[in-house]
Amino acid sequence: MLTISIYGDAIKFNVNDAKKSTYTLKVTSLDGTQGFGTAVAIADNGKLITAYHNISDAKLITAIDYKGNEYSVTMGKISFINDLAYLYVDTKNNYYSKMSHSLNLADEVYVLSYDNFLLKGMLSHISDAGIIINIEIRKGTSGGGIFNTNNELVAIALRKDILDKTSFGATINMLSTITEPYELLKELKHSDGNSDNYDTSFCENKEQLAVWKKLSKNSDTRIQEYHALFIGLCKKVSNKDLTTEEAQFIFEDCRLRLFGKQ
């Protein structure tokens, strides 16, 4: 057990508990390539949380628990903007992470990846758009848990941040934005583009617009570029200059260019 002493009080982070709620995601993409990511169990009904970009191009997803047991995965809903997704495995999660909304600057945090690589850092920035921690996550860590010293899940690791040696994560509050059907976005993304679909409902979704409103004041210029593209693409689809499928392809391509896959 990893034990930390702060101001004379013994605060214990039990890495074994974190391991038990952490899953490996083995993802086979549509082009046949295979990659790995991380997910965290957050309920006893087989419910996992991960980064959406881990599974956005998935043809087959296998979740592997800390004992090496493999499970087929059923997709839940996603948040395209906040890069989050729910997954479900056909088993009862005897071990899952309790979540906490409590975040304070300089809080000590721990990030655990699927391959049991543990990083220790602190909260450097907190906003409605997410958090920044003062450590740089490794490839494959995205979707993994960011835990406090009480073993509570306070955020999901998503990617390296624009600042050197830092990383970005989605807070537990942001899980409320996971409202979009995965199958709908999958159909849009992998359509051949030869349709007359000019659906702008995604642009008018109240939950998504609320998220964009919060992000609009963010100082990260990449987010500002992403938001500007969102506004422009909605206008282009509304004017029937682009189909919904074409706009979705451009939007996803921009996400990868700006934020990449971690």
Give a description of the structure.
The protein is built from six helices and 15 strands. It is of the alpha+beta class and about 260 residues long. The protein has a domain at about 180-260. The protein has a six-stranded antiparallel barrel. A six-stranded antiparallel barrel has the order 9-10-11-14-13-12. Helix 2 crosses helix 6 (about 245-260) and helix 5 runs antiparallel to helix 6 (about 245-260). The model is unreliable at about 1-10 (pLDDT under 50).
Secondary-structure topology with pairs:
Blueprint: E1 2-6, E2 9-13, H1 15-20, E3 22-29, E4 34-41, E5 47-51, E6 58-64, E7 70-79, E8 84-89, E9 108-112, E10 118-127, E11 130-133, E12 145-147, E13 153-160, E14 167-171, E15 180-181, H2 182-189, H3 201-204, H4 206-215, H5 221-238, H6 244-259
Antiparallel strand pairs: 1-2, 3-4, 3-6, 4-5, 5-8, 6-7, 7-8, 7-15, 9-10, 9-12, 10-11, 11-14, 12-13, 13-14
Question: In sequence order, what are the helices and strands, one letter per element?
Answer: EEHEEEEEEEEEEEEEHHHHH
Number of helices: 6
Q: How far apart lie the N and C ends?
A: 28 Å
Shape: globular
Question: Which strand order does the major sheet show?
Answer: 3-4-5-8-7-6
Helix content: 10-25%
Q: How large is the radius of gyration?
A: 19 Å
Number of strand elements: 15
Mean pLDDT: 86
